[in-house]
Write a structure and sequence with these properties.
The chain is of the alpha+beta class. 51% of the residues lie in helices and 18% in strands. The protein contains 6 helices and 6 strands. It has helices spanning 2-36, 52-73, 79-103, 169-178, 181-188, 200-210, and strands at 41-46, 110-119, 122-124, 127-129, 132-141, 148-154. It has a 4-stranded mixed beta sheet. β3 and β4 form a beta hairpin. α1 (2-36) packs antiparallel against α6 and α2 (52-73) crosses α3. The longest helix is centred in the N-terminal third of the chain and has 35 residues, at 2-36. The radius of gyration is 24 Å and the shape is globular. The N and C termini lie close together (11 Å). The relative contact order is 0.18.
Length: 219
């Protein structure tokens, strides 16, 4: 009985230590996000639902809007110019998205706004952006209840497949000039994946051993 109690206490302590470590790490990431967020504008698209059709439509609308924004703004737009473009072209971009969806057989409304949104830690090419609250161009398709898609609109880091893309040197230079050197270094260094084992396998084995019959000599 004592062995079971000790095992339970050991597992509890390990789990509490893990939760504390994760909380501390998340706090550090959110603090960094608060520092770099003023220099970044993200792009966030919410699908109508999680159906295969709506998810595919989300990606098509995403591509349409990104191509339109980058083509009309040009390659050298600043952060403020990008925000100004979105605000002044909001209605026309929404209408373009809706008309495009109608050609595909969907009668969904599209709503675009600039909003502060919480994002999880995300890798874009060879850069990692910490979790936290960022200003974003938020596009809601229909009811907006499906899985979303996001990228960094400024500096331009919006890739169709961000897992394999390489961040353009021009975008890296913008970040390098805008951010504190230590924060930029953290962005450009891939965060190591955390593999948590907690020796639970070993602990569970010990628990199984506890279930074995106890001989008279062990009592």
């Amino acid at each position: 009985m004592k062995q079971k109690r000790d095992l339970f206490l050991c597992i509890t302590c390990l789990l509490l230590a893990l939760l504390f470590s994760m909380s501390k790490e998340r706090g550090a990431e959110e603090a960094m996000a608060a520092r770099i967020a003023p220099e970044i504008l993200r792009f966030h698209v919410l699908a109508n639902s999680d159906s295969t059709e709506d998810q595919n439509l989300k990606l098509k609308v995403r591509t349409l809007l990104l191509n339109t924004i980058y083509e009309e703004m040009g390659e050298n737009a600043s952060l403020e110019e990008t925000k100004k473009y979105v605000r002044s072209h909001k209605d026309s971009l929404e209408k373009k998205a809706e008309m495009y969806m109608k050609t595909l057989g969907y009668d969904y409304p599209a709503h675009m706004e600039l909003a502060n949104t919480y994002f999880p830690t995300k890798t874009y090419g060879d850069m990692v952006f910490p979790c936290g609250t960022y200003e974003a161009v938020r596009v809601k398709i229909g009811e907006g209840k499906g899985r979303n898609w996001w990228c960094v609109l400024y500096p331009p880091l919006c890739f169709v497949d961000s897992s394999y893309a390489v961040v353009p040197d021009t975008s890296k230079e913008i970040l390098r000039e805008s951010l504190d050197p230590s924060d930029y270094l953290k962005l450009s260094t891939e965060n190591p994946k955390i593999h948590v084992r907690l020796k639970l396998v070993d602990l569970l084995k010990k628990q199984e051993e506890l279930k074995e019959p106890i001989s008279e000599n062990q009592k």
